[in-house]
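Because showing beats explaining, we let one protein speak, sequence and backbone structure tokens together, and leave readers to judge.
___
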Amino acid sequence: MSESTDTRARPANPLAARVHGPVRIVGAGLLGSSVGHALSARGIDVILDDSSPSQLRLAIDYGAGRAARSDDAPALVVVAVPPDVTADVVERELAMYPDAVVTDVASVKLEPLRTLRERGIDLTHYIGSHPMAGRERGGAISARADIFVGRPWVVCRDEETSAADLALVEALALDVGATPIEMTPEDHDRSVALVSHVPQLVASLLAGRFLDAQDASLRLAGQGVRDTTRIAASAPELWVQILGANAEPVVDVLDALAVDLSAVADALRAPEAPGSRRAVADTIRRGNDGVERLPGKHGQNRRFDQFVVMVDDTPGQLGRLFGDFGELEVNVEDLRLEHSPGAQFGLAEVSVDPTALRRAVEGLQERGWKIASTTND
């Protein structure tokens, strides 16, 4: 797998060059602990705090940071708590550390900002932000230093934000490997409703249909349905807060989606009726066009070719496969592995640059690998 080596665009340690003092992280769950791991790995002094003593001790034991001391004077505070208490914690941290820049990483930006403004809080040193990263499992035990790498980190500045404060939050994003993107809170919330919050609901609704399905039906599940429902394993408690805080934009997308679903259902109720087949085809084609708009690797709009390799379900086979890619000087842009129930092999769907497809397929076949299919099949 290749990574960007453009050190001109991404300095080696931008936050350390700007921060004069420790970084305080409030909330030692998945995101807070992950930020702590990433910054600690770069030699930055990280203070952890959490309302749960056991969660705090666990995050410290895993190396995400240290416990607070009475003489700490943080230059940057990162609030990583659930959305329903974000405004309260931001208000407290601004009062405790008036010289520090305070940011939060809540997945909803407008509601906490409105609450703080209604309370009359001085927000000169507050900048809302949101890393577009996470995992289905939460808590300090699931935290990883690399979950932000290559991911967008939205920064919501306003007219009161100083250039120095903005640079500090953007340096935080750069230091953990993310790409800072400036947006207004309103644009952010509308955007995440479409690309994050509604997909969570769609995945959960589809996975909920499995409860009444026969076991024989579920044994047919392949990678497509697993990809579609992967995020359905997310924590209900957190998502109730997120969806409630961003309800209006989410409802707008859901209403539009409901119209689309109703139109497809009507077409399939009478599949032989004039226009029905076209309606279904247009739905699939529109999805094709939408997927093409999604940024690819490293945020690029490049498209890759895929082929499927049959991999024996024995130790060392994936290592051998990647070793052969290395010998062929073919870079693997993406990889998905699927196992069929009862089969003694897996199917590795590999994405490569189109110019490398033929070299990869022919080279692997010469080395004894079985190619199940390619993009051109």
